[in-house]
Specification:
The structure is a homodimer. The first copy, chain A, has one domain: Phosphoribosylformylglycinamidine synthase subunit PurS (Mth169, Chain: A, 2-Layer Sandwich). The longest helix of chain A has 15 residues, at 53-67. Chain A has 2 helices and 3 strands, in the order E-H-E-H-E. The first copy, chain A, has a 3-stranded antiparallel sheet with strand order 2-1-3. The first copy, chain A, is of the alpha+beta class. Strand 2 of chain A pairs antiparallel with strand 2 (34-47) of chain B, so a sheet runs across the interface.
C-alpha cells in the first residue's frame, strides 16, 4: 500500500524535555555515548493508489500547516514508501 | 553530527485513534484520497563520533525494549544519518 511518510521534529533550538528524560535514562543504563535524544513524530498518510508528485507536495503542505506546530516543530522529511 | 533514527509505529492490527482523528479532519478539508493516517514516533539518538555497527544493533535493542511498548508498537526502522 503506497504511503507518504511525514517526519516532524522539535526545532533544534528548543529543549525537548521528553528526549532529555530518555537520554538521562539511557545514560543511567550505560549508554554513555548517546549525547542527546530528540523525540518527534512519524506520520503515515496511506493511499489506495500510486502516489503522485502532487500528493507529495500536498503532504508537505499538510505537514507544515496541520500535522506540525511551526512555532516549535519542523517538518524534516517527506518521503514515499511502497509506491 | 551522526545520529541513529529509530522509528516506532502502532501495530498494524491495532486501531490508532489519534491517526483516525487526523484522517477524519483531512477528509473534511478535502483530502479524500488519504485512506488512513497512522501516527508514531521518530526518535533521534545523537552521537559525537561516527556510528558503528554495534551502535546500530544497540539502538535496535533500545528501540525494542525501552523506546517502544512491544504489546502495541513495532520498531519499523533503524537508520543512520550524517555518519
Amino acid at each position: 500500500m503506497p504511503k507518504i511518510i511525514v517526519e516532524v521534529m522539535p526545532k533544534e533550538v528548543l529543549l525537548d524535555p521528553q528526549g532529555k528524560a530518555v537520554a538521562n535514562s539511557l545514560h543511567r543504563t550505560g549508554h554513555k555515548d548517546i549525547t542527546a535524544v530528540r523525540i518527534g513524530k512519524r506520520i503515515e498518510l496511506h493511499f489506495d493508489r500510486p502516489v503522485t508528485e502532487a500528493d507529495v507536495a500536498a503532504a508537505q503542505k499538510i505537514g507544515e500547516s496541520f500535522l506540525s506546530n511551526a512555532v516549535i516543530e519542523d517538518v524534516v522529511a517527506v518521503t514515499v514508501e511502497d509506491n
